[in-house]
Design a protein that fits this description.
149 residues; mainly alpha
Length: 149
């Protein structure tokens, strides 16, 4: 959460600096396109992981809420399994992209091109960790007796 917030502040500062340098001093830093793009990618995937951690990812529960607790848990576990499959798929196919791009450098910053592709893998790993927590929470909620209002 704090890293995402810090990166958003950094993104704002970098873009502000670039705009001021370009329009007031007629000087565009060489890294003015690369750095904001990289920061944006990291912010995006870390923020998605934060949303998963908080359980704020998009989920429509209109039909699921109508089921009894046991079938609802089964449906939720299938949804969690599908999420794990998707995350595994993304990580599996992103690793060769990282390896391929680690051999080249970005023009302005001279950082490895893999820096653009690491956020996806790091974000997916974090999402998987937080998804495990959501699975455990679903099971715990199933085991608790229903509260009467």
């Amino acid at each position: 959460y704090y890293l995402s917030a810090l990166l958003i502040i950094a993104l704002t500062a970098v873009i502000l600096y670039t705009v001021i340098a370009r329009y007031f001093f007629n000087y565009a830093p060489a890294w003015s396109e690369e750095l904001p793009r990289i920061i944006f990618l990291w912010v995006t995937y870390l923020a998605i992981a934060v949303a998963v951690r908080r359980g704020q990812s998009l989920k429509v529960t209109v039909l699921i809420d109508r089921f009894a607790p046991a079938p609802r848990l089964a449906i939720e576990l299938v949804m969690h399994a599908a999420t794990f499959v998707m995350l595994g798929y993304l990580i599996w196919y992103n690793i060769p992209v990282i390896e391929l791009n680690s051999q080249t450098r970005m023009l302005a910053t001279q950082w490895t091109d893999a820096v653009r592709y690491w956020p996806l893998t790091v974000g997916c790993v974090l999402m998987a960790i937080y998804q495990v927590r959501l699975v455990l929470k679903s099971i715990e909620e199933f085991r608790q007796p229903p509260t009467r209002a």
